[in-house]
Amino acid sequence: MFDMQRYVVHDQKLAPWVKFIWHFEADNIAVHHKLLPMDSIDLLLNLSAEMIYETASRRIVAPRVHINSLRSEHSFVRQSGNVDIWGISFYSFGLFPFVNKTLKGIENNITDLYSLSVPLAEKLKSAVSCGSIGHKVGCIKDSLSSEWNKSSKYLEWAAIISDFLETDKRISIRSFCKDHAISERTFERVVLNYTGYTPCNLLRIKRFQAASNQLLLVKSDKLTEIAYDNNYSDQSHFVKEFRKFSGVPPRKFQSDKSTVKENTKYSYI
After folding, report:
1. Which residues touch 83 (CB under 8 Å, ≥6 apart)?
2. pLDDT digits (tens, 9 = 90+) for 105-124
3. Residue ranges in the chain whose pLDDT is less than 70
4. 31 class by beta-carbon count within 10 Å (0-12 exposed, 13-18 middle, 19+ buried)
């Protein structure tokens, strides 16, 4: 079991965009765990051993400062030796105002932060280079604040995307757009620009997250109930979609205990 510290972001300037800052440090370990699809974007600063991501079709040696973007497929992360990693978890629409560059094309990928924002990459590298843990957390927040650059147009759309992700999961995209007097095509283009994903894929990822959490925490014996609770059309649809996202059927997922989430103890500070 790994211990990871999560630092809550109370700053009103950052809190709408940043879920939390996290830190993981351990000596002489071997990491080989599954990463599940998530509706957040992680920015990682690796200060230690080489980090490798593996999917069914490729192997990626991650840059020291990189983005692990929204993903609709599982992958594996490998690292061994002494590990020291800092991370920033953004809401799906939260990274954009810190890089001010379209996120279209970074989905299911590992992206060097330098390709999106050299100033932010340099400031974050400096933020974690020295000092105490508390000092580093403060410097990370200062670095983010200094690069935060929003427009009224972005704020308006971010509120709409947030509303979309929090709305009743049984409401269709068409109905949501109609209620907000926007065209589906415009909504898809904007969401893709600010998150890297289409509205449909964001909902699918969010639905998978809810179902996987239910499998892990509730331990329901009836897959039909989980399928219904999470708006899958039936059990067959649920199993097929779950296998696509996690790589295994729901029951095997329950017993594998192979994901980062299941092998990490989180402490909130």
Report:
1. 24, 25, 26, 27, 29, 31, 48, 49
2. 888 889 999 999 999 999 99
3. 1, 219-221, 257-264
4. buried
